[in-house]
């Protein structure tokens, strides 16, 4: 089992098929666990799924955007769906933060991959979620987009809780407050970063990813 406090940042590592994405789906109410209990923001995902979905955001390698809508139209659609207050002002704020204000009226299909992912970051933050899931969020990002993403995460970190799936050990350890390795659906390693022995972590990760134990 594990617990992540408000403001915590869990980096989740493991080989393909270890259960990382399944865990995020369980926490985000998309899949029911076969056993055990889950609490997200103090709520049971299966008794309070609508309430939890209003409190979570997702940034992944799939941007979840409509290509034939403009940047602004995408954010207005999601903002209306979540009932975001002062939506126009919130859209202005986020487009400026992700440096896309000058492309707000352009169709998403005309964006580069990095620009599309930056808009996906704005989409995920639009309704001010308290819990943010990041599924390989750096995939396909150019260095400038990576800087924007990590700057935004740093800005909102104090008031949010993060769970990030990543294969990038160095970046994952740099961002996290806790690190976990999943293997065959089980927790093979879980520790506060402050207590973490990086050499031991690298050795456990190497062995698990290669299936040596």
Automatic annotation (TrEMBL):
<comment type="similarity">
    <text>Belongs to the ABC transporter superfamily.</text>
</comment>
<dbReference type="InterPro" id="IPR003593">
    <property type="entry name" value="AAA+_ATPase"/>
</dbReference>
<protein>
    <submittedName>
        <fullName>ABC transporter</fullName>
    </submittedName>
</protein>
<dbReference type="GO" id="GO:0016887">
    <property type="term" value="F:ATP hydrolysis activity"/>
</dbReference>
<dbReference type="InterPro" id="IPR003439">
    <property type="entry name" value="ABC_transporter-like_ATP-bd"/>
</dbReference>
<dbReference type="GO" id="GO:0005524">
    <property type="term" value="F:ATP binding"/>
</dbReference>
<dbReference type="InterPro" id="IPR027417">
    <property type="entry name" value="P-loop_NTPase"/>
</dbReference>
<dbReference type="InterPro" id="IPR050763">
    <property type="entry name" value="ABC_transporter_ATP-binding"/>
</dbReference>
<feature type="domain" description="ABC transporter">
    <location>
        <begin position="1"/>
        <end position="209"/>
    </location>
</feature>
<keyword id="KW-0046">Antibiotic resistance</keyword>
<keyword id="KW-0547">Nucleotide-binding</keyword>
<keyword id="KW-0813">Transport</keyword>
<dbReference type="Pfam" id="PF00005">
    <property type="entry name" value="ABC_tran"/>
</dbReference>
<keyword id="KW-0067">ATP-binding</keyword>
<dbReference type="GO" id="GO:0005886">
    <property type="term" value="C:plasma membrane"/>
</dbReference>
<dbReference type="GO" id="GO:0046677">
    <property type="term" value="P:response to antibiotic"/>
</dbReference>
């Amino acid at each position: 089992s594990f617990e992540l406090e408000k403001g915590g940042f869990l980096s989740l590592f493991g080989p393909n098929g270890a259960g990382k994405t399944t865990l995020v789906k369980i926490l985000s109410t998309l899949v029911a666990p076969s056993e055990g209990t889950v609490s997200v923001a103090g709520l049971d995902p299966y008794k309070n799924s609508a309430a939890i979905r209003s409190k979570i955001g997702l940034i992944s390698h799939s941007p979840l955007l409509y290509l034939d809508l403009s940047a602004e139209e995408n954010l207005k659609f999601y903002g209306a769906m979540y009932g975001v207050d002062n939506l126009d002002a919130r859209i202005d704020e986020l487009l400026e933060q992700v440096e896309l204000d000058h492309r707000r009226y352009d169709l998403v299909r005309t964006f580069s991959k990095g620009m599309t992912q930056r808009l996906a970051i704005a989409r995920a933050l639009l309704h001010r979620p308290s819990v943010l899931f990041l599924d390989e969020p750096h995939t396909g990002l150019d260095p400038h987009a990576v800087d924007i993403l990590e700057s935004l995460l740093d800005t909102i970190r104090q008031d949010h809780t993060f769970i990030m799936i990543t294969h990038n050990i160095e970046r994952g350890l740099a961002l996290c407050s806790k690190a976990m390795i999943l293997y065959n659906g089980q927790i093979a390693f879980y520790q506060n970063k402050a207590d973490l022995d990086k050499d031991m972590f690298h050795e456990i990760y190497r062995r698990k990813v290669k299936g040596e134990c």
